[in-house]
Amino acid sequence: MDQRIVQDQNIGQNLRLLRLRADMTQEQVSQKLQLMGLPMSREIYAQIEMGRHHIPITVLQGLKMVLKAEWDEMLALAEPLEK
Q1: What does the DSSP 8-state code read for residue 4?
Q2: Domain 4-68, CATH 3.40.980.10 — does that match?
């Protein structure tokens, strides 16, 4: 069963801030996910950041590792992330 997280809050904004904190491009993030065996194009990742694409749980777990983030940073409600 393919499980996905529907963004009822904009997790994508948090992911964007975490990506910028990690000084990475969308392309770099998607490439690292691909190396982990997770199918992710830059275009799909961009849609995730914009809140227009559901996030598979496995991708969310991969993003946690790639961005070296904590769950509370990724799932925070409208709180700014420190840089």
Answers
A1: E
A2: no
DSSP H or E stretch at residue 56: strand 55-56
Q: Alpha-carbon distance 61 to 36, whole Å? A: 11
* 83 vs 28, higher pLDDT: 28
Q: Are 13 and 51 in contact (CB under 8 A)?
A: yes
R_g of the chain computed on alpha carbons: 12
Task: Tell me which residue has tokens 């490439």.
Answer: 31
* Chain segment 28-69, per-residue pLDDT in tens: 999 999 999 999 999 999 999 998 988 889 999 999 999 999
9 alpha-carbon distance from chain centroid: 13
Query: What letter does residue 36 receive in the DSSP assignment?
Result: T
